[in-house]
Amino acid sequence: MIINPELLTSLIVGVLVGGASAYLGSVMVLKRLALVGDALSHVALPGIGIALTIGVNPFLGAFTALAVGILTIWGIERKAPIPTEAVVGLIFTVSLAVGILVTPEPELLEALFGDISKVSPLDAAIAAVLSVVVAVAMRLTQKDLVLGLISPDFAKAQGVKVAWLNLMFLALVAVVVALGVKVVGTLLMGALVVIPAAASKNMTRSFGAYSIFSLILGAVTAVAGIVLAAVFSLPPGPMVVLAGAALFLFSLAFRAK
What we know:
Blueprint: H1 5-30, H2 34-54, H3 58-79, H4 84-102, H5 105-113, H6 121-150, H7 152-157, H8 162-184, H9 189-203, H10 207-232, H11 236-256
Helix pairs in contact: 1-6, 1-8, 1-9, 1-10, 2-3, 2-4, 2-5, 2-8, 2-9, 3-4, 3-8, 5-8, 6-8, 9-10, 9-11, 10-11
């Protein structure tokens, strides 16, 4: 296998996006929102389709659609006593239907399953900056997020603005989903968020170790999938997911002990 500039760029983006996604996923798993990342990835599809149609960077289209989606979810949550999963389920099914209709057919397969081999230098730069922003934001707000998870009332008594913190968390999810769509596509993005975090949960015993190890496993999963795809000339998106699944099965041995 020859490491050409395109493969090297893909590996760098994979490390950054995979690590940031799994780091965020460590909190999502604890909040029992593991499927929300998967559902939100479908919300990105209409934005990608419209961006491709008018010749705009697909990342901008995905992020715009996700921003509208999370604001809608957050607003409905505050106005009506409906579980987050139900609201997300409603929005993601509608978004998937609209996205399939508006996405040009030649690009539909790439939008659904990703193709990190086509990452441009601009995409790589955006991924680098935003992945670092997500990781830093998570590090700074992690304690408050966990406190709000354990006891929202106590968190409010401690001065934590739980509602706004939840909105910020959803915004971070939107960012990593928009970045990850290029890596594994809208249909498989949930796996990049959830699987490394689930594997880390099996292999660690403290929250600090769990979150950091999630980040590491996310990066390892992305790199392993991209390398395997390059070696066997296979689509990188599904290979990243399968690499993560293999890692999770390996982690079960630690859980058994």
